[in-house]
Design a protein that fits this description.
alpha/beta, 6-stranded parallel sheet
């Protein structure tokens, strides 16, 4: 396969850096092609602006998503965006490697989505979810946390992990058509010893050797929703956010 790893950590000596190196070494040893977008090392600009377009279709007020659609048709993205779009189009599997900050990704990675996931290419004219522009590709979150598993389990103090990652796995990756694999999560890394951290690295290596065995996140297709934008009668909710509140409380 062709694998793109988008990596967001400023310190190469971090545990995220160790996870990145393990991923690259394992994937290449398995015969896969790998590219890495090391956002901090690249000095990637996360701020969406009019400078992202070499030519403007709509002068005056910046309508960013409409300018993206025009840039897709005219090939007028700034060079840094065009390079990243090409990487996403090239890959069969997208891996996101980052520390979980404030229930989300670091700002530099959020800006990567804002600027690279372009209207008219990743979503829009194709549709969304199973109709999105990235359909046929897979994606996986690999994140480090400072919390313990029980803190994000059912009834945990931090809230359920599915809810924490919902905006990313469903609202970003699945939205543009990726089939989303279950996330790889490392817990309380700061408080673990070297042996435990080595175990996490080994576990990531094993997962990447057997990607065909990694479960896919349960998602609904757009055809399962009616004209009222709700699940059609008779279709059972399969995802955390689509379950009734009372079901999530049980």
């Amino acid at each position: 396969m062709k694998v793109l790893i988008v990596y967001a950590h400023s310190q190469p000596t971090s545990f995220n850096g160790a996870l990145l190196r393990t991923a690259v070494e394992t994937l290449e040893a398995e015969g896969h092609e790998v590219q890495v977008s090391d956002l901090y090392a690249m000095g990637f600009n996360p701020v969406a602006s009019e400078a992202d377009f070499k030519a403007r279709r709509f002068e005056g007020h910046l309508q960013y998503d409409r300018e993206q659609k025009a840039a897709v048709a005219s090939g007028s993205f700034s060079d840094d965006i065009a390079v990243e779009i090409a990487k996403v189009q090239w890959c069969d599997l997208l891996i996101l490697q980052f520390p979980l900050w404030w229930y989300s990704v670091p700002a530099i990675m959020k800006g990567w989505f804002d600027r690279v996931f372009a209207n008219g290419l990743m979503y829009g004219q194709f549709g969304r979810f199973n109709k999105g522009g990235m359909r046929g590709k897979r994606a996986m979150v690999s994140t480090t946390t400072g919390c313990f598993p029980g803190m994000v389990a059912e009834g945990g103090v931090m809230g359920h992990l599915d809810a924490i990652l919902w905006h990313l796995q469903y609202g970003t990756l699945a939205y543009v058509g990726f089939e989303v694999l279950e996330p790889f999560v490392t817990w309380s890394v700061r408080y673990e010893d070297d042996q435990a951290r080595a175990g996490y690295l080994a576990a990531l290596g094993e997962r990447l050797k057997h990607l065909d065995q990694v479960p896919v996140q349960p998602l609904h297709t757009v055809e399962e929703f009616g004209e009222d934008w709700k699940l059609k009668a008779g279709i059972e909710p399969r995802t955390y956010a689509h379950q009734p509140c009372e079901a999530r409380r049980r």
